[in-house]
Amino acid sequence: MWLQLSSWAALAALFSPLPAKATSLARDAPSDSTNSPSAAGTFAGTWYTTWHNGRVPIDNIDWKKYTSVSYAFVTTDPDHMVSLTADDINGTIFKDLVSTAHNQNTKVMMTVGGWTGSKWFSLLLAENYTRSNFINAVGAMANNYAVQGVEFDWEFPNKQGVGCNTIDKDDAANFLLMLQEFRQNPATSSYILSAAVSDKPFLNATGQPMEDMSEFAKVLDYVTIMNYDVWGSVDGILGPNAPLNDSCAPSEYQHGSAESAVDTWTKAGFPADKLVLGVPAYGHSAAVLPNNAYNNSELSIYPLIYNNASQVPGDSWDGKSGTDLCGVPWDYSGVWYWTNLADESLTSSFINANGTPRDGIDYLWDDCSQTPRAYNRSSQVMLSYDDVRSFGQKGTFIQEKGLRGYAIWEAAGATDVLIDAINSNMTGSKRP
Ligand SMILES: *[C@@H]1O[C@H](CO)[C@@H](O)[C@H](O)[C@H]1NC(C)=O
Ligand SMILES: *[C@@H]1O[C@H](CO)[C@@H](O)[C@H](O)[C@H]1NC(C)=O
Ligand SMILES: *[C@@H]1O[C@H](CO)[C@@H](O)[C@H](O)[C@H]1NC(C)=O
Ligand SMILES: *[C@@H]1O[C@H](CO)[C@@H](O)[C@H](O)[C@H]1NC(C)=O
Ligand SMILES: *[C@@H]1O[C@H](CO)[C@@H](O)[C@H](O)[C@H]1NC(C)=O
Ligand SMILES: *[C@@H]1O[C@H](CO)[C@@H](O)[C@H](O)[C@H]1NC(C)=O
Ligand SMILES: *[C@@H]1O[C@H](CO)[C@@H](O)[C@H](O)[C@H]1NC(C)=O
Ligand SMILES: *[C@@H]1O[C@H](CO)[C@@H](O)[C@H](O)[C@H]1NC(C)=O
């Protein structure tokens, strides 16, 4: 409804017009152009979250290292269709991100949804009427903030995410209808269109991953495969956070990886150069007792987490106050961002800035997942993370598989050394 739309539009209108420069940035090649050169290795992306703006201001990031940044998040809401979150309710951060990134010739996307912003997707997309209102609301916001594209991050179609999302067996089919209508609508047809997705394709009406995603590939410029949190504390085992490979792991520990995800998505009809690999500038930590932490004299790759109902705090950005949108109290995440991990001034971290383990820390490179892990014997905390070496390997993998590129979660957690490691092994990521 335009009435509903007008409330945020009025809010956005409080701000001065966005720079004209925005419109001069070229859109990605249209998805139906068969003669265009491959987009392989050309995409160096990240997300900028509003809630870390106070930690790492927009000006502190060298946007020239990225070809694209997505604003996180615009959330779904049943009344206004889409809205900014409380930590950027006036859109000040959004505006600043767009003008700063555009000044460095970096494209800006707008991510709609996310873990806590997917609650109403199912409901909004189910009816023709609400679906077209939703498209209009998203298009109007994209236009108002002068972004080049829109990324939908629905966690997840026909599968519960945060715990209280609306959900329906026809979610994937309705998602496809919405994307097709988004492409057809003259007001939204020229935006870059993408989706953030899991290692496996969307679940169909009978709850199985779809085997044919080619209709999605026709309307989306690319999907970003969120190959992280593959193992988290909820599994009771601290496996690799972002495995590059898992077909070399014992069968009971094959939970997904970049390799198996790319295999699944390409078999389902997605061209490799429409796949962006999501990579984490963070690791997960958890309490692990010494007798589970070691396998002979080496660190275990799949250790049992001790008392997994009580998560240990991660880095200094971690907190547990308040409740989530479902009314469940927030627990610690146990997350360590690379920025903090590699911070020499933090005595409680696991590694030095050059990536070597600190005194009292045991370290293991896992040849299968091609990721490191570290263990503090005194505090009995283990960390499964990514570093310069694993980012380099992921860059090589992107290049070899002909993927479009990578997207780092998230800009505030990454440092130049990490971005350079993945860029250096991707020939196409060099900025003009
Ligand atoms: C948002 O705008 C309102 C109205 O102009 C103002 O009162 C409020 O302080 C602003 N909030 C922030 C976080 O800037
Ligand atoms: C809803 O949209 C679908 C797909 O465009 C169309 O086939 C159908 O007729 C529409 N239904 C109504 C009630 O308008
Ligand atoms: C869902 O996908 C599975 C294969 O992954 C297929 O066997 C099944 O028929 C599909 N269900 C529907 C409703 O399309
Ligand atoms: C703890 O781990 C067990 C498996 O060891 C799992 O069944 C249970 O769901 C986990 N509990 C929580 C709260 O994560
Ligand atoms: C993954 O492991 C399999 C089995 O060991 C191996 O054949 C394949 O080359 C590995 N892939 C990568 C990207 O390391
Ligand atoms: C311990 O090491 C053996 C041999 O490498 C391996 O088969 C087993 O899965 C490992 N156990 C854990 C918990 O990592
Ligand atoms: C390891 O844990 C101990 C006990 O909590 C702590 O004092 C120490 O700073 C930690 N070491 C490192 C290098 O983080
Ligand atoms: C690039 O890939 C090669 C081979 O996989 C690897 O040895 C090298 O360390 C990688 N570069 C970086 C910066 O990690």
Automatic annotation (TrEMBL):
Residues 1-22 form the signal peptide. The keyword Hydrolase applies. Residues 42-429 form the GH18 domain. Keywords: Hydrolase, Signal. One of its GO terms (biological process) is carbohydrate metabolic process. GO terms for molecular function: chitin binding; chitinase activity. The keyword Hydrolase applies. InterPro entries: Chitinase_II/V-like_cat, Chitinase_insertion_sf, GH, Glyco_hydro18_cat, Glycosyl_Hydrlase_18. GO terms for cellular component: extracellular region. Pfam families: Glyco_hydro_18. Gene3D superfamilies: 3.10.50.10, Glycosidases (3.20.20.80). SUPFAM superfamilies: (Trans)glycosidases, Chitinase insertion domain. This is Glycoside hydrolase family 18 protein. The lineage of its organism: Eukaryota, Fungi, Dikarya, Basidiomycota, Agaricomycotina.
